[in-house]
Amino acid sequence: MAWFYLLAAGLLEVVWAYAMKKSEGFTLLTPSIVTLVAMIASFALLSIAMRTLPLGTAYTVWTGIGAVGAFILGITFLGEAITPMRIVAALLIVSGIVAMKLSSAH
């Protein structure tokens, strides 16, 4: 169950990062509220996952999901550049997430 909570926390990290970008520096109300609610929910789920998962594993996977998810959303919805180096960097993050999962006893 901890991995489910961690996955949900990571996906919510993507939501709040995207909403923060859309809030234009917290000047728009709706995306600002989405940012804050998603942040709180993400941190809460991360803390639940950390009850059983090691700190290093949980935090690395959480930030990795957020980083790769934000990368994908940036390309898909914000027109950010797709370059070979950015793709390699995202693949390295994903490989690190997989390695952390495989090395975890949970």
TrEMBL record:
Membrane topology: Multi-pass membrane protein
Gene Ontology cellular component terms for the protein in this record: plasma membrane
InterPro entries the UniProt entry points to: EmrE-like, Small_drug/metabolite_transptr, Small_multidrug_res
Pfam families the record matches: Multi_Drug_Res
A GO molecular-function annotation: transmembrane transporter activity
TM regions (residue ranges): 27-46, 58-79, 85-103
Single GO biological process annotation from the record: xenobiotic detoxification by transmembrane export across the plasma membrane
The keyword Transport is annotated on this UniProt entry: yes
SUPFAM superfamilies: Multidrug resistance efflux transporter EmrE
Compartments where located: Cell membrane
Chief place where the protein resides: membrane
Record keywords: Cell membrane, Membrane, Transmembrane, Transmembrane helix, Transport
Protein family: Belongs to the drug/metabolite transporter (DMT) superfamily. Small multidrug resistance (SMR) (TC 2.A.7.1) family. Gdx/SugE subfamily.
Protein name (database record): Guanidinium exporter
Species the sequence originates in: Paracoccus aestuariivivens
